[in-house]
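User: Teach me something about this protein's shape.
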Amino acid sequence: MTARPSVPPWSNRLSDAPSAGIEGGGDRGHFCDGLVKPEDLSTVFQPIVCLDTGKLFAYETLVRCEVPGFAPTTLFERAAAERSTGRLGRMIREIAVPLCGGTPVFFNLHPNELAERWLVRPDDPIFAHDHDIYLEITESVPLSHFDLCVSVLREVCARTGAHLVIDDLGAGYSNLKLIADLEPRVVKLDRALVQDLHRKPRQQKLVSMVVHLCNELGAAVVAEGIETRDELSAVCDSGAQYGQGYLLGRPSFPMPPITWPPPPSESRLPTIRPPPRMPRTDP
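Assistant: First, the predicted structure itself:
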C-alpha cells in the first residue's frame, strides 16, 4: 500500500488529513445521509487559559462544517441518529492530531461514540499524539449504557494516559454524581452558569460551591463561555483555575494567540502568544 502524504501544515481540512479515508470505517464518500463530504469538514482550536497567569493550559479542538445548516450540534445530532458518532469523532481526530503536536489538546466525545467503540481501535490518531490528551464527555445529552461507557473510557485512558473531562456541567442532563463516578481530571462549567455571573449573587454562591466540590474530588475547573471582563472577574472570584471563551481567544486555525485582559487602568488588550511546546504534566 502506498503511504499517504503527511498533512500540509497549513491545512485543517479532513480531505488533507494523512488518513482521511478511515480504513475499516467505510469509504471516503458522503456522511450524514449523504449530505456531508470529507472536504466539508475542518477543525479550529480555542485556547484554555490559566486564570492566575494568563498562560496557555491547552487547546480545545472544535469541528466546523461548510454545509449550510450543519452547525456542530446539528452535525453530532445527525451522526447520532445514523449511529455514526464514532465515525465522526474519528474524522475530527484525523484532522486535528497532526496539527497540534507538542500541545495539550481537548477532544469532545459524544456519549454514543463510546458504545460504538471506535475509540479503542489501535490505529486511532490519539495514540500517536505526543502530549496530554483530555477527553470531554458532554452532559448535554444522557450517558446511556453507563457501565459500557465507563469501561471504554478507562481502557482508553489506561492505554493513552488520557485525562477524562466532564463537559457542560450545568447543562440539560447534569448530574453531580458523575463527578464521583467518573473521577474526571477536569470539569468544565457550561456557559449557562457563567453568563452574567457578576450580576447574580445566588449563582455566584452556587458556582463557588461547585468549584469547591470539584476541587475536593480532585478535579480542576474550566469556566466556559467567558465573553466579558465582568464575567472573567466573577469566574476568578469563584476559584475556577482555568477559563475559555471569546474574551480569551476565539476558535480559529492556525492556533490562535491568547488575549489576556489587562488591569482596568489599561486601555489596550495585550496579546500573549502560546509557547511552541508545553512541558508534559504528570498523569
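Now, about its shape. The chain has one domain: 32-253. The beta strands are 41-50, 56-65, 105-109, 133-138, 163-169, 186-189, 220-223, 242-243, 258-259, 271-272. If you'd like, I can walk through any region in more detail.
User: That's plenty for now, thanks!
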